[in-house]
Amino acid sequence: MIQSLSEADKKDLLDLLTRLVAIESVNRDPQTSRRTRPEERIAAFVTEHLRSMGMVVEAREMEPGRPNLIAHWPDQGAAGAPSLMLNAHLDTVPVDGMTVNPFNVTIRDGRAYGRGTCDTKGSMAAFLTALAIARREGALPSDKLYFVATVAEETCCQGAAALMASGFRTDAAIVGEATGCRVVTSHKGPLWLTIETHGRACHASMPHLGVNAIEIMSRVVQFVHGPAWQGRIKRSSHPLLGESTMSVTTIEGGAKINIIPDTCRIQIDGRLVPSEPANQVAADFRRMLAEHLAQSGLQPSAAGDINKSGLFSIVREEAYPPLDCSPDAPVARRLGEICREFNGQPGPLGVNYFADTGPFNQAGIDAVLFGPGDIAQAHTVDEYIELEQLYQAAEIILTLLTRHAGRSILRG
Ligand SMILES: [Zn+2]
């Protein structure tokens, strides 16, 4: 049977979303947020809400004032039962340039506008509402249920990584992100490289006396987008994700029009399919780029005072884990069955963005993404969620829980 929300439940859900959006939780960058503690106030509100649902709440701080929350009902879940967490993050991206009121939800044309409505307070409100209704109806599954709220998702999922480092585990996870109420079992993992080329400055009227770092970098850019490297990163493909990609996304170099530049810097955005380990790709990149530049005939100048690492350095390398949950994992299958009934989703999807699913999956948890809304609306100046999506997400989770009342979602 499909569960639908009563008008009163819909109103409660929308009220909860409105209250969540009203609490600013902007996470701009790790340094700023260490000082501003963006999740502290919303975590206090969510803690009180979870307690009002009868849950006990444990706070595990990633750093002072930035707690991941782990909530459960002590009397719920059979002995030895598998465990399932419903998860959503507490932070949002900044509100610069927003054309709608970011913290005061406006309803227009069947949409709720405001920062976080789509990413991802809508998911949080939907999950909390479904849990509360299923509890009220005495129709919870036998699996041990957790609601987990994470910090620092928007700055690369450091909160989820800290939660995994603290030892918390469940067997399965449903992570709230805007998937259009469809199940997502795969996403790519980012590999971000910052490259510097090393030249030697001199007056531009006598360029033969220097080494032009921008000229070296032009070869690096050609390499990144050229056939050898593109062939390497596209050598393996994933059934839901296709191939890995890599692009030069920023460039800066040079100081003055009449000076041969001694340094140039680019950033490269790589998105790797799960079968391509980031450290292996980075090692191949370093080796193949060195070979490419050696063949190009570019030489450090006769002056010989070029940086001893050669023509280039990888000055920063960051990687974040991909998601590769088996479509046959019980959480993916069971949630997928219900999504098919609600919206006709034929099978699990892959997406190119990444989320808290990465650290969870890396820690051995069967994690899927699921939530209301369109990811195209996340992070935008007029962020909104369709109310129909919001209600459907709650109804799908409620159906998942109540259909397995007294039984296991994850076993049997
Ligand atoms: Zn998000």
3D structure, described in words:
This protein is of the alpha+beta class. The chain folds into two domains: 263 residues, Zn peptidases (Aminopeptidase, 3-Layer(aba) Sandwich); 131 residues, Alpha-Beta Plaits. Helices cover 33% and strands 24% of the residues. It contains eleven helices and 20 strands. Strands 1-2-6-3-7-19 form a six-stranded mixed β-sheet. A hairpin with a 3-residue loop joins strand 11 and strand 12. Helix 1 packs across helix 4, helix 4 packs parallel to helix 11 and helix 9 packs across helix 11. The two termini are 19 Å apart. About 2% of the residues have low confidence. The structure holds zinc ion. Zinc ion binds next to loops. The site of zinc ion has 6 residues, from loops.
Using the CA coordinates, give the radius of gyration: 24 Å
Strand adjacency order, main sheet: 1-2-6-3-7-19
Ions, cofactors and other ligands present here are: zinc ion
Low-pLDDT runs of 5+ residues are 302-309
**Class derived from helix and strand content:** alpha+beta
- State the share of residues found in helices, binned by percent: 25-40%
Largest sheet: 6 strands, mixed
Strand content: 15-25%
